[in-house]
């Protein structure tokens, strides 16, 4: 029987908070240079919504801008994020690499993320996660945009019979429940206590996965 663990990326394996604000600052510098933005970079507003999907980011930060300009802004931001990753300005969470190495001896490991594929691949390649991860799935690969459907895709395509989903947000926990998998919440940077309460287990360090997984 195939057993697997499906990981969220941002705020679960990768410390995205380290690169978000520098990438956002660079993005708005470029928008100002193009005459598409006036005033300061909306860092405080961004901090309030950290962890939401990118379309929501730009709807919130640029509510008066056209969809076309929002999409251009998102493309610039995406490029800046990848530059930050490739320059190793981000980091995996403590004990991530050791934990993945140990888990991969007994489980198939996958990533299911709201991030765009090029962004996810940059993290995987920079930190050589392909040593442990069997497959990386982006929300771009499904039409609904729902994490539950993305996890379902991972389960079906890989013939998974038993598994767990590890993540920091309500959508990760819901995705586990909707697919009859164990839900493991991580109490990291973007996590909210009210969302974590619905998880089967909550951990404060990735190494705890070695003892809490029940599959």
Written account of the structure:
It is a single chain. With 215 residues, the chain is of the alpha/beta class. The chain is 46% helix and 14% strand. The protein is built from ten helices and six strands, in the order βαααααβαβαβαβαβα. It has helices at 17-33, 43-49, 54-61, 67-86, 96-103, 117-126, 147-157, 170-178, 193-196, 209-212, and strands spanning 3-7, 108-113, 133-138, 162-167, 182-186, 201-203. The protein has a six-stranded parallel β-sheet with strand order 3-2-1-4-5-6, with helices on both faces. Helix 3 crosses helix 4 and helix 7 packs across helix 8 (170-178). It is elongated.
Low-confidence stretches: none
- Number of H/I helices: 10
User: Which percent band covers the strand fraction?
Assistant: 5-15%
Secondary-structure element pattern, one letter each: EHHHHHEHEHEHEHEH
* Estimated radius of gyration: 17 Å
User: Strands of the biggest beta sheet: in what spatial order?
Assistant: 3-2-1-4-5-6
Number of strands: 6
Reported for the largest beta sheet, the result is: 6 strands, parallel
Helix content: 40-55%
| Category by helix and strand content | alpha/beta
User: What's the N-to-C terminus distance?
Assistant: 11 Å
């Amino acid at each position: 029987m195939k057993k697997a663990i499906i990981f969220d990326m941002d705020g679960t394996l990768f410390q995205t908070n380290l690169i978000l604000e520098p990438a956002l600052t660079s993005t708005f510098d470029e928008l100002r240079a193009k005459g598409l933005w006036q005033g300061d970079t909306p860092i405080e507003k961004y901090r309030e919504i950290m962890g939401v999907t990118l379309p929501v980011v730009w709807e919130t930060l640029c509510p008066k801008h056209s969809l076309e300009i929002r999409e251009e802004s998102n493309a610039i931001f995406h490029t800046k994020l990848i530059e930050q990753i490739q320059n190793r300005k981000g980091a995996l969470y403590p004990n991530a690499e050791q934990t993945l190495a140990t888990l991969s001896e007994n489980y198939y490991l996958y990533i299911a993320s709201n991030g765009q594929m090029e962004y996810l691949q940059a993290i995987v390649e920079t930190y050589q996660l392909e040593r442990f991860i069997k497959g990386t799935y982006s929300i771009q690969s499904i039409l609904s945009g729902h994490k539950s459907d993305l996890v379902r895709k991972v389960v079906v395509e890989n013939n998974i019979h038993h598994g767990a989903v590890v993540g920091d947000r309500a959508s990760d926990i819901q995705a586990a429940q909707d697919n009859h998998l164990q839900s493991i919440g991580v109490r990291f940077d973007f996590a909210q206590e009210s969302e974590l309460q619905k998880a089967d287990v909550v951990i404060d360090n990735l190494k705890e996965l070695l003892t809490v997984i029940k599959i």
